[in-house]
Amino acid sequence: MDRTPVSSSNISAIGYDSDSEILEVEFTNGAVYSYSGVQLGEYDGFINADSKGKYLHANIKGRYPYVKL
Fold it and tell me: For the whole prediction, is pTM greater than 0.85?
């Protein structure tokens, strides 16, 4: 999956596949997490958020199942 580089102190890139509703978050430390069941509107909110880290904690973590890749 292609990931889009983002401006964030902890997140380096975000990827999304609308067919499978998979969101990938690549952190600046190199870790990558894949969240499943994420709808397009949630991805849009995340990618456009002023603070990616705050959005991730408030809207993604704890709401969607994930695996560390």
Answer: yes
Q: How far is CA 46 from CA 30, 60, 62, in A?
A: 19, 9, 15
Amino acid at residue number 2? D
β-strands 3-5, 11-17: how paired? Answer: antiparallel
* Dihedrals phi, psi of 4, to nearest 5 degrees: -95, 125
Give tens-digit pLDDT for 9-67: 999 999 999 999 999 999 999 999 999 999 999 999 999 999 999 999 999 999 999 99
- Token readout for 43 is 């991805």
Classify residue 45 by its DSSP letter. Answer: H
For 63, the 3-state DSSP assignment is: coil
- CA neighbours within 13 Å on the CB side: how many for 28? 8
Q: Is 8 helix (H, G, I), strand (E, B) or coil?
A: coil
